[in-house]
Structures are given as C-alpha cells and as structure tokens.
C-alpha cells in the first residue's frame, strides 16, 4: 500500500525550530519528487519547498528562503523539512506530496499525499 505519513508538527515559540518528517511506504521516495505544502485556515494549500527527482534541484517559496531546508534520507525512505527561525505566519497544516519528474507548485499534479501535521508558532 502506497502511503506518506508526516510527523513532527508541534507548538513552538517564534524563532524556534522544527523538523518535519515525511515517511513513505509502498514505494521508494528517492525516485519521486517531493513537495511540502502548507495550508492556512480558510486558504488554499501553497507550495513551500520542493526537491526534484528529475534534476535534484530545490524550489522554494520566497517566504521560507534562508529559513527552511529540505533533505532526503534514502536509508529511511524519508524526506525532511527543517524549519528554522519560525514565525507566527508559518502556522498551518503541513503536507508532503509526491509526483514523478519535476517540481510543480500545483497540488493537483501530485499523486500521493500525507494526512498533514500541524505546526503552530506562538508565544
């Protein structure tokens, strides 16, 4: 069964850090492009940071530049989103999603999604 499972969301103070995990089962994550999306209450999901299996490049939203990084752990079949210098506006439900080939900012182009993990940045 193909499945993505996110974890690592929590309540954290502004300026703090979190590492989200996206673990895959039923397929090899290293062969797929992975994008982290987030959704704010009442808003559409937006792409945050993507790592492409096609060219190994990373694509990010400007709002997370210099603060968030994405990495793969092939042995654990997991992709991580390291989030530093968190701000209250980073609060949201974070999802990982996978597709073949290149990164896309359009969620409809992704084949598999996790259930999401909540990140809350508040003092």
Number of helices: 0
Q: Report the mean per-residue pLDDT as an integer.
A: 94
Enumerate the spans where pLDDT stays under 50 for 5 or more consecutive residues. Answer: none
Q: What class, by secondary structure content?
A: mainly beta
The major beta sheet can be summarized as: 7 strands, mixed
Radius of gyration in whole Å, from Cα? 13 Å
SSE string? EEEEEEEEEEE
Strand content: over 45%
Head-to-tail CA distance between termini: 40 Å
Report the strand count. Answer: 11
What's the helical proportion of residues?
A: under 10%
Q: What global shape is seen?
A: globular
What key attributes describe this structure?
123 residues; mainly beta; 7-stranded mixed beta sheet; 4-stranded antiparallel beta sheet; 47% strand; globular
Plain-language structure description:
This protein has 123 residues and is an all-beta fold. It has strands at 3-7, 11-12, 18-25, 33-39, 46-51, 58-60, 68-73, 78-83, 92-99, 112-113, 117-121. Strands 2, 4, 5, 6, 9, 10 and 11 form a 7-stranded mixed beta sheet that branches. A hairpin with a 6-residue loop joins strand 4 (33-39) and strand 5 (46-51).
TL;DR of this structure?
Helix content is 0%, strand content 47%. With 123 residues, it is mainly beta.
Map the helices and strands.
Layout: E1 3-7, E2 11-12, E3 18-25, E4 33-39, E5 46-51, E6 58-60, E7 68-73, E8 78-83, E9 92-99, E10 112-113, E11 117-121
Parallel strand pairs: 2-11
Antiparallel strand pairs: 1-3, 3-8, 4-5, 4-9, 5-6, 7-8, 9-10, 9-11
């Amino acid at each position: 069964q193909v499945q993505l499972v996110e974890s690592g969301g929590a309540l954290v103070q502004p300026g703090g850090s979190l590492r989200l995990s996206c673990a895959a089962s039923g397929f090899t994550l290293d062969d797929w492009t992975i994008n982290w999306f987030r959704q704010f209450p009442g808003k559409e999901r937006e792409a945050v940071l993507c790592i492409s299996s096609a060219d190994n490049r990373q694509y990010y939203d400007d709002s997370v530049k210099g603060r968030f990084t994405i990495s793969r752990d092939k042995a654990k079949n997991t992709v991580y989103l390291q989030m530093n210098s968190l701000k209250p506006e980073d609060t949201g439900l974070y999802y990982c999603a996978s597709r073949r080939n290149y990164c896309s900012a359009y969620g409809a182009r992704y084949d598999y999604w996790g259930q999401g993990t909540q990140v809350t940045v508040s003092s």
